[in-house]
Design a protein that fits this description.
Structural class of chain B: alpha+beta
Strand content of chain A: 25-35%
Order of helices and strands of chain B: HHEHEEEEEEEEE
Number of domains of chain A: 1
Number of helices of chain A: 1
Oligomer: heterodimer
Number of domains of chain B: 2
Helix content of chain A: 40-55%
Number of strands of chain A: 5
Order of helices and strands of chain A: HEEEEE
Distance between the termini of chain A: 108 Å
């Protein structure tokens, strides 16, 4: 068989005639598969990004609840009843606070502060307070609440 | 005369394939751009998602062990016990430490955000028994994406603000619990 035998018109015509339709189907299937893989990858990345935002939200609210705990432990005992940032339970004071900043937007949360008064304990005669702070953070349709409770006694 | 069978594709087939290819290619390009955008987003959020909480934990454990603290404008001022301020980039710590005769002594340390050898980060300096600090830090607590760290005691509690590369920040209480 000579070198050019395979490229005779007859062979070429037959080959294309036989495979012409199939190559179109193959191309379409390949593109669809490629699309499916790309879509799957995109979905995975979106899930990863959502998880990352969740982690950031959780760590920021945890940190802010820590600040609230530290502040409640440090607050001057005598000033607690006159502290305008808290209400005596069941009343409360609600404020919007910025708990952090991402590269794209500020992260805000709702801070609810209240306190319980336990007047003159029957045994010790001591006055005590339970200071509560609730850091409420909304991520999309989900709402998270971090609680800080500090018991202070004279 | 019998018509010879034609090879190749008809114009309609080619037009269909070209149209579909263009459509799928544009969708793929769009998706690729979305991938790149999401990847950048993930990289930009890296500091807040990974570094900041870990740095916060290290700072809480380090500063939380101190009996007392003072804030200074810079690491140099803190090591020299210079002017004390309410907001600054360095904290000098007083830590209790038993000595060989079982007496409790105080050992001082400095935690500061500064640039050393062209490398910005949070460094830990421990004073020697005589109370003097070395010019080189004992440890580097954090670096990388961190671009600033400020300590603030103006509200009555010690709050650290950690800033990342993209002006993103994270705030936490680092004082003794």
């Amino acid at each position: 068989m000579g070198r050019w035998t395979i490229l005779t018109r007859k062979d070429t015509c037959d080959r294309y005639a036989r495979k012409g339709g199939y190559s179109l189907i193959e191309l379409t299937v390949t593109l669809c598969l490629l699309m499916a893989i790309a879509l799957f990858g995109l979905k995975t990345m979106i899930s990863g990004s959502t998880l990352q935002n969740w982690v950031i939200g959780q760590s920021m609210t945890d940190a802010y609840a820590g600040i609230e705990t530290a502040w409640a432990e440090r607050e001057v005992f005598a000033n607690i009843p006159t502290d305008a940032t808290r209400g005596v339970y069941p009343a409360s004071v609600t404020t919007q606070v910025q708990i952090g900043q991402t590269p794209f937007k500020s992260v805000n949360a709702t801070l609810i502060r209240t306190y319980h008064v336990y007047t003159l304990d029957a045994v010790t005669g001591a006055l005590s307070y339970l200071l509560e702070s609730y850091v409420v953070y909304t991520d999309g349709q989900r709402k998270y609440c971090k609680v800080s409770k500090v018991y202070r006694s004279e | 005369m019998k018509r010879r069978r034609q090879s190749g594709f008809t114009l309609i087939e080619l037009a269909l394939v070209t149209g579909m290819s263009v459509m799928v290619a544009s969708l793929l390009i769009g998706m690729f751009q979305a991938h790149v955008k999401m990847l950048n987003l993930a990289l930009e959020n890296n500091f807040l998602a990974q570094d900041a909480p870990f740095i916060g934990l290290l700072l809480t454990r380090t500063i939380g062990n101190a009996e007392d603290y003072r804030i200074y404008g810079s690491g140099t001022a803190a090591r020299a016990d210079g002017t004390r301020v309410l907001t600054g980039s360095a904290v000098r710590l007083w830590m209790r430490q038993p000595n060989s005769t079982s007496n409790i002594t105080s050992r001082q340390a400095v935690v500061s955000y500064e640039t050393i050898n062209a490398h910005p980060g949070i460094y830990f300096f421990l004073a020697n028994a005589a109370g003097t600090f070395s010019a080189t830090p004992n440890w580097e607590l954090a670096g990388g994406w961190l671009t600033n760290a400020q300590f603030d005691a103006s509200s009555g509690i010690l709050v650290a603000t950690l800033t990342g590369t993209y002006n993103d920040w994270y705030q936490l209480s680092v004082e003794k619990k």
